[in-house]
Amino acid sequence: MIDMMKAMQAFVAVVDKGNFVSAAEMLNTSTAAMSRQISGLESHLGARLLHRTTRRLSLTDAGQEFYSRSQSILSDLAEAESIVGQQVMQPKGTLRISAPLSYGVHELARLLTGFRQRYPELQLDIDLSDRVVDLANEGIDVALRISRALSSQLIARKLLDIPMIMCASPAYLKQHGYPQTPEDLTEHDILNYSYLATGDNWSFINAEGEEVHIRVQPKVHATNGDVLKTLALADGGIIIQPDFIVEQEIANGTLTALLPEWTMGTFSLYAVYLSRKHLSAKVRAFIDYMAEHARE
């Protein structure tokens, strides 16, 4: 099957140069290959495009029309490649970002200030939601997700580890007592995050590698960590949340960290995107910026 784009390029080159030899030199090919391209093009179209004599080449009426159309098509293609090439090199257009609500408010907002200063030609469309978005169907360029592990089917880059902190208010602990082991949590009021990867099955590990698995019976489920923090501050129960949500309250004493020798494993912030190949400049710029600054 004929490659129409290459055949048009060969035909236009022959017409522009006036002979096969010069056209072949311009396209870095042989004269015989150029001749085969034109003959194949004429056979495909079912029309003669060039009058060939020993002294000169001239266009047929069909050739003149095809030459004009080919010039226009090749010019449009070159312009399209140039535009796309510029976008690949320089981030432009609209970048659609999805991120968990609390992370967006506590962390992402401040990071985006510097990102916008670095890439002023980018427009940002930010969706803050704790649900797992469908990047392809919802037109999302890159999604930030906090998880202990992602599906192997996802294309993602790990940005940083995020400690999870178990805590409660001093008043709640004074009334209900301090849990001494993970098993003690089954006797407490639990306020659980609805999208926690393990649900109501909590797993803990200590420095010695000992593992404990329990099932909690939450008094409250919520799809947002800040809502749970507010309830905990009102002496509502025990929460487990990322450090960026509760670190200020831990520091000022309005929440007390619990069972520091036990962890729920490593949770991390990931940037999830659609394709490793042909990654757009705007997505690459955002992911690289987050990898550079998210730990600040």
UniProtKB/TrEMBL annotation:
<dbReference type="InterPro" id="IPR005119">
    <property type="entry name" value="LysR_subst-bd"/>
</dbReference>
<dbReference type="Pfam" id="PF00126">
    <property type="entry name" value="HTH_1"/>
</dbReference>
<keyword id="KW-0238">DNA-binding</keyword>
<dbReference type="InterPro" id="IPR058163">
    <property type="entry name" value="LysR-type_TF_proteobact-type"/>
</dbReference>
<dbReference type="GO" id="GO:0006351">
    <property type="term" value="P:DNA-templated transcription"/>
</dbReference>
<dbReference type="GO" id="GO:0043565">
    <property type="term" value="F:sequence-specific DNA binding"/>
</dbReference>
<dbReference type="Pfam" id="PF03466">
    <property type="entry name" value="LysR_substrate"/>
</dbReference>
<dbReference type="InterPro" id="IPR036388">
    <property type="entry name" value="WH-like_DNA-bd_sf"/>
</dbReference>
<keyword id="KW-0804">Transcription</keyword>
<comment type="similarity">
    <text>Belongs to the LysR transcriptional regulatory family.</text>
</comment>
<dbReference type="GO" id="GO:0003700">
    <property type="term" value="F:DNA-binding transcription factor activity"/>
</dbReference>
<dbReference type="InterPro" id="IPR036390">
    <property type="entry name" value="WH_DNA-bd_sf"/>
</dbReference>
<protein>
    <submittedName>
        <fullName>DNA-binding transcriptional LysR family regulator</fullName>
    </submittedName>
</protein>
<keyword id="KW-0805">Transcription regulation</keyword>
<feature type="domain" description="HTH lysR-type">
    <location>
        <begin position="1"/>
        <end position="60"/>
    </location>
</feature>
<dbReference type="InterPro" id="IPR000847">
    <property type="entry name" value="LysR_HTH_N"/>
</dbReference>
